[in-house]
Design brief:
It contains 1 helix and 10 strands, in the order αββββββββββ. The chain is of the alpha+beta class and 174 residues long. The radius of gyration is 19 Å and the shape is globular. The model has no long low-confidence stretch (mean pLDDT 86).
Length: 174
């Protein structure tokens, strides 16, 4: 086998691997549930190049035990509130539950001043965008939301970002 033949075979194998992964991701996107989740700002420290939005997902948490913070600064980012959440899509929104049959991820459970619980994803989701994309700055009353696919296993996979204003999410076009 010549060097040229070996190179072509290796190239065909690489293209086959890429097409297999791409096909699986597209299949999941078509067949698995989708949901929108509010995105919390997160400053990444990653060595990858390119332009991307790194966001921690924030969504309602149901049925979790909660330990009030004991420290003086009031932070509840403690290991006692670091728990496993099962994910589901409910009315197009992502919800984390203490018990469930679906996929899940590690979250930090936080109690809002109104008494409701929310979960913040332990690992951020990365949404890659073109270098020429114009990312709008938020105005008063606007929130960043991310639409995700909920796979059978593993964390949610981001599809696109949107801006929520007056109860309506408008997807961003990059």
């Amino acid at each position: 086998m010549t060097g040229m033949t070996k190179g072509i075979v290796l190239g065909v194998i690489h293209v086959g691997m890429i097409l297999t992964v791409s096909g699986k991701l597209l299949y999941d996107r078509w067949t698995r549930p989708r949901a929108w989740a509010q995105a919390a700002t997160y400053d990444p420290d990653l060595p990858i190049r390119g332009r991307y939005l790194s966001q921690r997902l924030q969504y309602p948490a149901e049925g979790f035990p909660y330990k009030a913070p004991e420290n003086k600064n009031g932070s509840d980012w403690t290991w006692e509130n670091h728990q496993w959440a099962y994910l589901e899509s409910r009315d197009g929104k992502l919800v984390g539950k203490m018990v469930g049959p679906g996929p899940g991820q590690w979250v930090y459970v936080h109690r809002n001043p109104d008494g409701n619980f929310v979960a913040f994803s332990d690992e951020p989701v990365l949404l890659f965008i073109p270098d020429t994309a114009n990312v709008p700055s938020l105005k008063r009353g606007e929130e960043v939301w991310v639409e995700v696919t909920i796979p059978k296993k593993g964390p949610p996979r981001p599809i696109r970002a949107g801006i929520k204003k007056n109860g309506m999410i408008t997807p961003l076009e990059f």
